[in-house]
Design a protein that fits this description.
Arc Repressor Mutant, subunit A; binds glutamic acid; mainly alpha; three-stranded antiparallel sheet; about 475 residues; Glutamyl-tRNA Synthetase, domain 3
């Protein structure tokens, strides 16, 4: 039997990191089993779907390595509406489903409780199809439904506690629960690997598989992803969109490595490992069923390590969207023609060791590309104290006299200026840094001045000096 798995996102919003995690787990499982990964877009909720969400999912998958053309699909659930209706009709004809026109109020009035499920009123009343008649599945009165789940063992559900649930609405349209089963069935899916949120649906879905006469798939419900307060990650509260992480400058390699650690770990004491090791070592059966904590701080640290491990040329390439303003939310604060690739290449190795996410490149190098630096006023006030004006005067004079404009000469010259005033290098450097870069922190100062060049450095120092009059 060929293993066939599927990833079945609903295009109702930005692509959730939890979804990306499930997609990767499916992807690796298929690969390990010599199986097939199917992508099915579950687009039947017309009111909430947007084509751009579908495109977003496809490109986000592509980004983390599930590339277009390397899987089966995408299929679209909406294209299978005929199959869904045919399955509903088969269930009705075989007596496994029946029509019902009860309103919620009717049921409440009979059961005396708003919490009780449907009471089976129409089970044997022979109501036929018609407008406003919903189709309900006749769940067995007795016995249990045992779900075989690679991660959770065999969760067992008592059939008598499962109400006769609706499978097609009053307008005849099949509900998601049925459509999802029918698609898995028609697509020959053997393993359903999906988020824990769907576990409560699973006994109902398995009953549908049985009633339609097809052997159910093996299930694997992967753990819910939570924030630091142990709340399920929600798009209203937490940063959940894979696209948002991408735009902030997370590397795809770091992201997918981190996502695979949600509920699983490679052998040894390792967390940062090559993708090939994950593909070898990952075992779906080893995934911890408890909620998995999405730790953004840890992800940032991870990303920093991935950034540092890049060959410099790749780092330079990876920074381009933020430097040239393509594909990022915020274009850089300089004009395209102000960007200087050579100057960037000169400081790139210094910047590479300092970033946690690639978007941080912008405040680190903006001083190189802007006609005048963006002054951080708080940093200015904190740094420019009594004596700063004189210090800048001395520094300008000393720099003007320099024969060679290189980091080492700049450093020893400024150090000497400070020593004369009884200042350590750190204190001497601070006003110069703010004058030239606008900030108190950044790349190593003297290398920065070397790359910025004599003219621009001196002009900025003089401009700062004038402001201090
Ligand atoms: N479309 C469903 C979702 O996005 C997935 C259902 C499933 O994987 O069975 O949550």
């Amino acid at each position: 039997m060929t293993v066939r798995v599927r990833f079945a996102p609903s295009p109702t919003g930005m692509f959730h990191v939890g979804g990306a995690r499930s997609a990767l787990q499916n992807w690796i499982y298929a690969k390990q089993q010599g199986g097939v990964f199917v992508l099915r877009v579950e687009d039947t909720d017309a009111a909430r779907n947007k084509p751009e969400w579908t495109e977003g999912i496809l490109s986000a998958l592509d980004w983390i390595g599930i590339s277009r053309g390397s899987y089966e699909g995408p299929y679209f659930q909406s294209e299978n509406a005929g199959e869904h209706r045919a399955a509903a009709a088969r269930l009705y004809e075989s007596g496994r489903a029946y029509y019902c026109d009860c309103t919620r109020e009717d049921v409440q009035a009979r059961t005396g409780s708003q919490y009780q499920g449907y009471d089976g009123y129409h089970r044997d009343r022979g109501l036929g199809p018609g407008p406003g008649h919903a189709l309900r599945f006749r769940t067995p009165d007795e016995g249990t439904t045992v779900v075989v789940d690679l991660i959770r063992g065999e969760p067992t559900f008592e059939n008598k506690l499962i109400e006769d649930f609706v499978i097609a609405r009053g307008d005849g349209s099949p509900v998601f629960l049925l459509a999802n089963v029918v698609d898995d069935m028609t697509m020959g899916i053997t393993h359903v690997i999906r988020a824990e949120e769907h576990l409560p649906n699973t006994p109902k879905q398995q009953l549908l598989w049985d009633a339609l006469g097809v052997k159910p798939p093996v299930w694997a419900h992967v753990p819910v992803v939570v924030n630091e307060k142990r709340q399920k990650l929600s798009k209203r509260r937490d940063k959940v969109a894979l696209e948002a992480y991408r735009e902030e400058g997370y590397l795809a390699g770091a992201m997918r490595n981190y996502l695979m650690l949600l509920g699983w770990a490679p052998s040894g004491d390792r967390e940062i490992v090559p993708w090939s090791v994950i593909e070898d070592e990952f075992r779906l059966e080893e995934v911890n069923p408890s909620p998995a904590f999405f730790d953004e701080k840890k992800l940032r640290a991870f990303n920093g390590e991935y950034i540092r491990a890049l060959p410099v040329a790749e780092f330079i390439d990876a920074c381009q969207p933020w430097l040239t303003g393509t594909g990022t939310i915020a274009p850089p604060p300089w004009q395209p023609e102000e960007y200087d690739a050579e100057a960037f290449a000169a400081v790139a190795p210094l910047a590479q060791t300092r970033l946690a996410v690639l978007s941080e490149i912008v405040p680190n190098v903006d001083f190189l590309f802007l006609a005048s630096p963006l002054i951080d006023e708080a940093a200015w006030t904190k740094t420019m104290k009594d004596g700063s004006a004189e210090l800048l005067d001395d520094a300008v004079a000393a720099f003007e006299a320099l024969e060679s404009w290189d980091a080492e000469s700049l450093k020893s010259t400024l150090e000497a200026v400070g020593t004369e005033r009884g200042l350590k290098l750190g204190k001497t450097q601070a006003p110069v840094r703010v004058a030239v870069t606008g900030r108190t922190v950044g790349l190593p100062l003297f290398e920065s001045l070397e790359v910025l060049g004599r003219e621009r450095t001196l002009a900025r120092m003089r401009a700062a000096r004038l402001r201090l009059v």
